[in-house]
Amino acid sequence: MTANALIQRLREHARITPAQIAVENEQGTLTYETLWRTVENLSRKLREMDVRRLALEADNGPAWICADLACLHAGVTLIPVPLFFSATQREHLLNDAAIEMVIAQSAQPPAVDAAVLDADLGLYAIATHTKSPAQETAEDIIKVTYTSGSTGQPKGARLSAAALESVMLSLAEAVEIDEPIGHLCTLPLATLLENIAGVYVALYKGGRVISPSLANLGLSGSSGLDLTQWAQTLQRWNPQTLILTPELLKAMLFLIAGGQLRLEKLQFVAVGGAKVSPVLHAQATQLGVPVYEGYGLSECASVVSLNRPSASRPGSVGKPLSHVSLSFADDGEIIVAGAAYCGYLGEPLQSSEAVHTGDIGRLDAEGYLYLEGRKKNLIVTAFGRNLSPEWVESELLSAPCIAQAAVFGDGEPFNVAVVTPARPDIGHDLLMQAVAQVNQRLPDYAQVRSIIISDAPFSVANGQLTANGRVRRCAIAARHKDRLNDLFQSSQPFTRSMP
Fold first, then answer.
1. Does 361 share its domain with 414?
2. Are 360 and 334 in contact (CB under 8 A)?
3. What is the mean pLDDT of residues 328-353?
4. Is residue 356, in this structure, part of any structural domain at all?
5. Is residue 325 classed exposed, middle or buried when 0-12, 13-18 and 19+ CB atoms within 10 A define those classes?
6. pLDDT per residue as tens digits for the range 257-299
7. Are 23 and 30 in contact, with CB atoms under 8 Å apart?
């Protein structure tokens, strides 16, 4: 494997700007000199341990970042363990990936036999007494990111160092900020988007990565958010760049509009993971928040396209990054070439030149990419009209009283939405008023006739959300099967009596 561009750049930063802050959070800071020394020491220990594949199970913060960079430097395949995984999912990951060692973070030495990697960071290496099969590990596979599988079990997508580097370099160019970036990590670092587009890009450009603990961010599980704590953390660090999901963007705009948050330095807010509704984008523009929507997937090593300051088109997910080329299947499926993954763990190693994304989209005359839904999610109504549920859901989510939505109607004469209210005190009548307003913006075949109020928020824990926040339609439909059937069976398609 050739020398990694990020590792080379870190070495240069440590030599040229040693006192510049590289990583910090509520517990302290690491300068570039200290960061480089720590990464070198950790990578040397990993080489001495002769480990090929390890898991990283740690909170957001400097320790996670140092361990990740050390694996990159040492050429060790790293598998991040999302802390919101259930015990069953965690066990599946460790077994499926044939993990040889787990890097864990702890304030005190673990009770089990563990080697100290870095006492200051609280990093320990715990052997699992498993040996990775040789055929499953290639020299250039540097990271395995677990993404949701169609069966509900997470699947490990193999990513090469070259693929991650291509994405990082393209994003560093797309951000269009020349001075050092102050980037605040608001997503779990085990999320590939935050890992590459957030941490790697900021460090490559000589910036400052602010990585508070998940508790300090106000995040719990896969979708819990303490709004007050989150606002305090955003205000304290006042970053230049952020990466948000649409739901976090919605929360931030609520705080800004209410005068509870002022982010004077903010220059670039990348939003991904799900579609941004036009209403939400318009609100951001009105409040002066620089929102740039993008698109990506784990199988393409994260970001594929992104709006940017010099080329932005609301409603699109931007132009393809410089390392990417797009083509389209006859049915409109997006096919991505460039930085493709090397197959899933448990499958033969492959060197894919292109990824069939399963997403339907189109390019306009100026090269902006528009998403029109998931190929497998397409709803064909009983009247033969086609629609993407994601389109209707994004409109529903623009309503302040609706936190989550999943739309159903395949083969039916009308659509039903399962919704989660934004607050427990929001009832059916208020929700239906919001739906009526949304329906005014939709053609008749896309309108929502009825709603079901979910008995609990969609989450990874209850199997109704994927790890990256997308709804699991089959699980939601199964949960509300009887109520959906009752609504659809009560349909009266002909309301006028025959003569």
1. no
2. yes
3. 86
4. yes
5. exposed
6. 999 999 999 999 999 877 787 888 999 999 999 999 999 999 9
7. yes
